[in-house]
UniProtKB/TrEMBL annotation:
Protein name, as recorded: UDP-glucose 4-epimerase
Catalysed transformations (reactions): UDP-alpha-D-glucose = UDP-alpha-D-galactose
One of the record's GO cellular component terms: cytosol
GO biological process: galactose metabolic process
Amino acid sequence: MSRTKILVTGGAGYIGSHAVVELYEAGFQPIIVDNFSNSQESALRGVEEILGVRVPLHRIDCNDAEALRAVFAEEGSLRGVIHFAASKAVGESLQKPLEYYQNNVGSLLTLLQVMREFGVEALVFSSSCTVYGIPDALPVTEQTPTKKANSPYGATKQMCEDILRDVAAAPGNTLRTILLRYFNPIGAHASAKIGELPLGVPQNLIPYVTQTAAGIREQLTVYGDTYDTPDGTNIRDYVHVVDLAKAHVVAVQRLLDKQGETVETFNVGTGRGNSVLEVVHAFERATGQKLNYKIGPARAGDVPAIYADVTKSVEVLGFQTTTTLEESLASAWKWQQTLGK
């Protein structure tokens, strides 16, 4: 049986590698594009061990139009694209705004041009709950107004969404797009062969938690405890990365079946918010590891609280998460233990 080819940009990254596994297991043929600026080749070895096959890889930058054209020409018969490739650290984007706009917005423009040239008409775009800014009410729905972004990273996601809506509204447009607004991906594959693999000091909470438990980091800093939340710490919607990956498979199939509108937006989260301290204590319960942590100053660009209303994802996309916070944290710890020190 011939498999439907789906290009996965950033396919060696944290979410990308899990999506590649889920795509293949659902009967698709993922084709990976990655320049390894924020990922490691060991992730692909993990994917290969899980699937028992080597997934095709093109080592290119999505901002390089000629290289991208060569991939489309070589692979032929690509039916769709999942676009993960982007710089994604809120704090870093405040330090390097120009690089973030170039990489995140520039790569989407290049990809859209090449997709049009080759007649590829299905795109799942990796967006983010950061597009909501600091919301007036919780939980946020897909109709919640987007506000001025708290960081250049968030602004690039807003810009990319605007570009895709404008393309969809243009006369003669044939592109169909699903915008998936992620909340906070955590955890690792049940095999512990792939997981979150931050380069250098982790920017995200969970790898810092697991590295602290493993003794790699001396202490976890909880940034701020005076937010307007029940325990004063930030609240986020933590979604297991495999659940998130499965949402992409559902989205790809919806696009290929030509269901729904030309451009659709879905929140991908659990529908529940957990504070940083709740996560710390849930990790301790799930793993039996005591965490050394302290309270530090709040960070610039951090939204006090955000979590998803997932009604639309459940009712329209037919997708719902199944993994609990404790299960997600246990999988992250299992993954950390395979990495050693």
